[in-house]
Amino acid sequence: MSHRWKFILACTLLTTLPQAAYAWNSVGHMAVAKLVYDRLDDGHKKKLFTLLQSHPHYERYLAAGRPDNVSEVEWAIVRTSVWPDWVRPRGDKDSRGAEVTRYHRPEDHYVNVPFIDPKDAAVFAGKTLIDPDLTNILDALKQRCNEVRTKTTADIDKAIAVCWIFHLVGDIHQPLHNVAYFNDTKDYRRGDLGGNLFGVRAGGQRVKLRAYWDNLLGDDSNYADDSANHQARIFREALKVADSLRGLQLADAEQKKLADNTTFKSWSQESFELAKCVGYRQSDGKILAGVPAPFKGPIPEAAPEVGDDYIKTARATAEVRIVLAGQRLAERLKLVLGK
């Protein structure tokens, strides 16, 4: 057995134990949403669709650009999953205005759980590395689910909350959205922001580790392209991914996760363990080689290659996480929407 598979097996054992009580890109998020859509009964689809028609961006985004061969119900529901990324500010050239970007909640997409390089454990022992009062994806998911459950919540707010639930359940299953890597160097003493400051090469391409994982399921290099042709292409790519994963047989360990891990915290803990055991590990089990990368700007030329074994393992891990996200999100939606 290779060193990498030994680490994956160790992670599987860890994450199946009882837990103390930019995420996938558009392709990945919409693939999760499509898997969810196919698991919902007609009654829940109708209830979701009715709610979404109260959304402030229903005509402008959720229903916009629909291809002729896709029903409005399916198109709108699947696109809920990427709306929270669509409202992100796009810099000085963003002409959409505050009517769109006012809904942006940057801290809601992730939680920075510290992963300390084992060789530096003594350096960080006893230190508070992440402000415990910062809001994060766990808080956001609880709040949005409660908003949908509460009868007095206005339909417009429920529609917005539904979009966040679709998106954040996808995010919480992306390992790099649940971690921050620390080591005793000037570049990582405050963490790497979930791989956003960690540069590598994958297949010869320089990329931040976070972005590499976000893009594992498909390419959406021009996320700001709102044209109907581009959005239809992304939708088709997502359907291909969903179709390829629909018949994926989960291993017994993953089936046990579905049965045992039913809380947002337990889903995040699964992702954190995978980040430690797969996301930041080389094929020999050592911490992944990488170089400090600027949050904005080019990846340094010195970025090392992750290797074919890492690429294959990362892809396989992402596929399982997408399937788990789809099944869990479908069940959670049934719970919060009611009969």
* Tertiary shape: globular
Based on DSSP secondary structure assignment, what is the total number of beta strands?
Answer: 5
Class by helix and strand content?
Answer: mainly alpha
Instruction: Kindly state the percentage of residues in helix.
Output: 40-55%
Main pleated-sheet profile: 3 strands, antiparallel
Structural description of this entry:
It is a single chain. With 339 residues, the protein is mostly helical. The protein is 51% helix and 5% strand. It has helices at residues 3-15, 26-39, 42-52, 58-62, 72-79, 83-86, 98-101, 121-124, 137-149, 155-172, 209-214, 228-246, 252-260, 264-279, 308-337; strands at residues 114-116, 180-182, 198-202, 205-208, 291-292. The strands form 2 sheets. The protein has a 3-stranded antiparallel sheet with strand order 4-3-5. A two-stranded parallel sheet has the order 1-2. Helix 2 (26-39) packs across helix 10 (155-172) and helix 3 (42-52) packs across helix 5 (72-79). It is globular and about 55 Å long. The N and C termini lie far apart (48 Å). Residues 1-10 and 12-21 have low confidence and may be disordered.
Structure summary:
The chain has 339 residues and is mainly α.
Topology diagram in text:
Layout: H1 3-15, H2 26-39, H3 42-52, H4 58-62, H5 72-79, H6 83-86, H7 98-101, E1 114-116, H8 121-124, H9 137-149, H10 155-172, E2 180-182, E3 198-202, E4 205-208, H11 209-214, H12 228-246, H13 252-260, H14 264-279, E5 291-292, H15 308-337
Parallel strand pairs: 1-2
Antiparallel strand pairs: 3-4, 3-5
Helix pairs in contact: 1-14, 2-5, 2-10, 2-12, 2-15, 3-5, 9-10, 10-15, 14-15
